[in-house]
Specification:
flat; alpha+beta; 121 residues; Alpha-Beta Plaits; single chain; four-stranded antiparallel β-sheet
Length: 121
Amino acid sequence: MSDQKLFLAVFLGSKDNARMKAWSALPEAERHAREKEGIAAWHAWVEKHKESITDFGGPLGKTKAIGENGIVDASNALTGFTVVRAASHEAAAKMFEGHPHFSIFPGESVEVMPVLPIPGA
């Protein structure tokens, strides 16, 4: 596995997107049935890629932005993350094709980026 690199996968979704609004409008029983289907599919995805997952990650909560003017409440589309190991950026991205985050749940996308070495380290 020494030729493998780390990649951060960030799950994106917004409370204001049309998919989330449609999801929220579903009757409770139908939404729960889809949630159950989505959780099962997500577990199957993890099982399929378990050898490549280095940090399962998890869902993300409320955001605080910290800058030169202090700390403020913020909002963004980040909903979760996972760290995987793959031979290439393309191979890492392919792991997320058809992922339940957007194929069953109302998530918008998964963005995959390489974790780069710290310069000078």
